[in-house]
Amino acid sequence: MPIQIRRLDATTLRAARTAGMIGTLLVLTACASPADIAVGTAQADIYARFGLPTHTCPLPDGGQRQIWSQQPNGQYAWALETNASGTVQSNEPVLTDASFQRLATGRWTPEQVVCAFGPPAEIGEVGLPSVRQTVWSYRYRQDHVWNSLMYVYFGNGDTVTRFHPGPDPRYEVKDGSWLR
User: Fold this and answer.
1) pLDDT per residue over 22-48, tens digit each?
2) How many of the other CB atoms lie within 10 Å of CB of 159?
3) What is d(CA 146, CA 136) in angstroms, rounded to the nearest whole number?
4) Residues 6+ apart with CB under 8 A from 47
5) I need a labelling partner for 105 at 20 to 30 A (CA). Which of 32, 126, 158, 178 fits?
């Protein structure tokens, strides 16, 4: 039995191309993140595009520091600082090694940590009953490669005493299949 080849008319081809372009645009816009927000963007435009921030802190000049975070399951968060009129003044990724290094200087309270990095993925406790420390864990990509957690310790629950990265147990191979 001979195969019949059907030729598409110009209208059908245009419709197929248009559908393909719309699909491509949908895929590209689905990949948008707060990292793409430019300085000078109006706060209303950001809310329309990404919704409300995960956490907001007031700034001394009347503006706001706004955090869009993927915690508890994602590995990225962005901090946008807006002025009093609601225009973006700065945009930075905050779950990075360089950003976490800020914890090494000064005295950091839990309020300051959540304002700097957003809410943690997990909160736990470690230590002996007489010396308990609260630990906040942030999921992130250490060196932009490794699936990690940044552990932030609070002595007596009021200031950061230390911090360090470690592997994220969610990504550990438990059956030894990597050895084969």
Assistant:
1) 443 333 344 688 999 999 999 999 999
2) 15
3) 19
4) none
5) 126
Q: Sorting pLDDT into bands at 50, 70 and 90, what band is 172?
A: confident
Tell me the two tokens of residue 75.
């590995």
Contacts 24+ apart (CB under 8 A), 134-137: 136/110
Q: DSSP 3-state assignment of 6? A: coil
Tell me 170's DSSP state.
G
pLDDT band at 4 (very low <50, low <70, confident <90, very high): low
Which contacts of 168-176 are long-range, i.e. CB under 8 A and separated by 24 or more positions?
168/139, 171/147
The 3-state DSSP class for residue 133 equals: strand
Residue 82 contacts residue 64 (beta carbons within 8 Å): yes
* pLDDT given for residue 28 in this prediction: 38
The pLDDT, as a whole number, for residue 24 is 39
Mean pLDDT of the chain: 86
Please work out, in degrees rounded to the nearest 5, the angle formed at the alpha carbon of residue 110 by the alpha carbons of 107 and 111: 100
CB 83 within 8 Å of CB 89: yes
SS (H, E, C) 15-67: HHHHHHHHHHHHHHHHCCCHHHCCCCCEHHHHHHHHCCCCEEEECCCCCEEEE
Q: Which residue type, as a one-letter code, is found at position 79?
A: A
pTM attached to this predicted model: 0.78
